[in-house]
Every structure is written in structure tokens, then in C-alpha cells.
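My current task is to audit a protein record that another person submitted. Thanks in advance; the entry in question is below:
***
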Amino acid sequence: LRAPSRRLCGRYALVMAAPAQIAPPIDSDEELQSLYNWVDEIPLSRPKRNIARDFADGVLFAEIVNHHFPRLVELHNYSAANSHGQKMGNWNTLNTKVMKKIGYTIHHQDVEDVTRAAPGAIERLLRVLMDKVLQAQEGQLRPRIPSGNVVPRVAS
């Protein structure tokens, strides 16, 4: 009996996300304000009143990812949610289908904190996303779509 062979191509290493780490804290009020300004520049489907609650279901986060990486996100997969289970489902979909393609895995504790609308939790994740977008715009990050083709455009 032969063990099944595995063929690993170099491109798969680029797609694999790093092990999940808790998102780092925001260092200063200036950094936080810069983050809020960045989010405000993006058209979202519903107004932001309380950022922790508004982003808890993952829908607005998915919209931001879609704005910058339009070929990575299928927005119909995310629905507004009130229950913890539905929120976790949205975030799980984001984590497994989208975030890994830009080289980041959201830590389970961060997902829990965001779905519970813990103060500062969504800001930490948005900061990581903002960094990934900037890396992509500078050509340091090459997100991939499922077929393995490089996504040709990153919105600026």
C-alpha cells in the first residue's frame, strides 16, 4: 500500500494564514482617530452609531473587506444578526473564506470579544485589516482567489 501523495506548490505558502494571534492593542488616540477616519471613508450599508455593536455581526467588516478586495468577499454570505450563534457564523465565514486569503486568521478570543461588543475589540481587528490593505496597496501583500490566481486589483 502506498500513502497518498501530496503535491505542495510554492503558491500555497503565500495563501496560508499565519497562526491566529490576538490582535494587538491600539497604541494611541491619534492611531484610533486615524482608524475611525479610514472607516468613515468607506460607504457602508448602515450608519455607524456604536462601532462595537454595529460591527458585532461581521456584516460591516465584510463590507470593508469587499470595498478593498472586491473579488474576495461574497456579501450575500453575511446577514445582519442578533443572536450570538448567527454572529459567530458570519465571523467564522469571514475567517475561513476571506481572511485566510489575505494572510490573517482572526483569533477565536477576538471573535468572541467582537461578537460580545467588548470595548476596543473591533478597533483592534479593523487596525489589522487596515494594515493588510496598506500592504496590498504597496504591493507587499498578494491576496489570492480560490483558483489560485492573483487578485489583479486592490481598491485604493
Confidence is low (pLDDT under 50) at residues 1-16, 148-152. DSSP finds seven helices and no strands in the chain.
